Amino acid sequence: MTITNDAIQRICILGGGTAGWMTAAAFSKVLGNQSLQIELVESESIGTVSVGEATIPQIRAFNQLLGLDEMDFLRHTQGTFKLGIEFINWYKPGTAYMHPFGPYGTNMAGVPFHHYWLKRGSEQPLESFCLEAMAARAGKFTPVLERQGSPARPVNYAFHFDAVAYAVYLRQFAEKRGVKRHAGQMKEVMLNPVTGRVDALLLADGRQVEADFFIDCSGFKGLIIEQALHSGFEDWSHWLPCDRAIAQPCASTEPPRPYTQSIAQAAGWQWRIPLQNRVGNGHVYSSHYVDDDEALQVLHDTMLTPPEAEPNLLRWQTGRRREPWKKNCVAIGLAAGFLEPLESTGIQLIQSAISRLLSLFPDKTFAEETIKTFNRYSTTEMEQIRDFIILHYKANERDDSDFWRYCRTMNVPDSLNDKIQLYRRTGRIFRENNELFSDISWLSVLNGQGIYPQSYHPLADKFSATNLDEQLAMLQKQVTDNVAAMPDHAAFIARFCQAKVM
Ligand code: FAD
Fold this sequence. Notes:
alpha+beta; seven-stranded mixed β-sheet; globular; FAD/NAD(P)-binding domain
């Protein structure tokens, strides 16, 4: 038997946004060697979306893959720490809840904590049992909690950072490892008339960039994957009707909070992302229910200080590319599809596509089985995240606008409906096939959006009510004591990762 390995020698990445430079950085670190040339084409005149400033904890695995020094990375990107997201006015006006990155209480006798909490009538706020949630509210942060007499407890966190500075930081990383950058506008994708594969990209000044394998990181338009290879697009806007955003930063008036805020508005929601040097704001809305001028006014009315830059208007269609890998091209980032930024999953989707691609890295034969596997897992991942985001909209009791009434009454995917019904009926949350969001995340949003179960796990009855009340009180006290022992978030930044004044 002959085993072939017709190795790829040239990779071309189209696009120098977050997706392009994350891909270039990871490839140069993992695949970089003398016989593989990695090139990246980007157009300075077209620019990037320049948003994408809140992350989820998985980004730390990406940093570790690159071997980045976390504090150095934060100093260069005006970074702050993120312990979760606070959702304000989502369930109904006047309500707020936290989706934290850490667990609630502790599982006992193999039964998740929340069943005990339900059994005791869910009287105490759920977040009072979560270290990350309470630390966020108190403005505290440390990466690892040292406790006398007990093992150290790692804290679950992610980051906020300046998206433009992040791309610059990764560009320096990638160029140091041999990635060759071409500044210029791509005019044409040159397809092979026999195989239909991409042979080269033709730039406006006549240069041609040839490669064996192309990564399309060209943003929403998907210049290779869609415009040239016609992958097709599955539209999800009937489930996620927000299709625009206006982003605009303002000055900070307080020390940065270690969490993102998401504030529901009449036809969408608004983000507040605290960085070291400013606050990132954005209003995500449905153009069917509000026009751009009104949307900008809503943003200005709720900004803490006057805007510090021109508004950045972004438009999109929610959904996914049907074949994110087609022929010899893989789309990563916005080129592969987009789910609105409610749960900060854009950068995570880039990261997981990179790691999936590294696991399935092809040779020049581009085996159909490899491509199918990549596409199948990419689809499942996006559908699972989609369901989680839809839940925030569907489970609302707002009656103040047509937008929220539409969301409450819309049909949702069966996969989400099944999950909601399972929880409502039994209190059970079932994490499927390694899905991104854990039961902690689902519980936070189900509970925060006012969905209450009719029963709890029968094994929770193993503990008496008195015994449980003692356990719950002890767990709450542990959280309070641990939070009290943590440094202030701002003090931690000042000590370990203060950015240079810009
Ligand atoms: P882009 O940034 O659009 O980059 C495309 C690149 O392709 C650019 O370099 C451009 O110059 C280049 N290009 C395009 N055409 C050509 C051409 N003809 N020739 C040469 N080069 C070309 N994600 C998160 O994780 N957290 C968040 O908080 C978050 N917030 C978001 C808020 C909004 C409103 C939006 C829209 C997205 C948000 N995202 C967020 C998603 C995140 O911004 C993106 O996933 C990320 O920025 C990746 O973008 P990209 O690199 O795919 O595309």
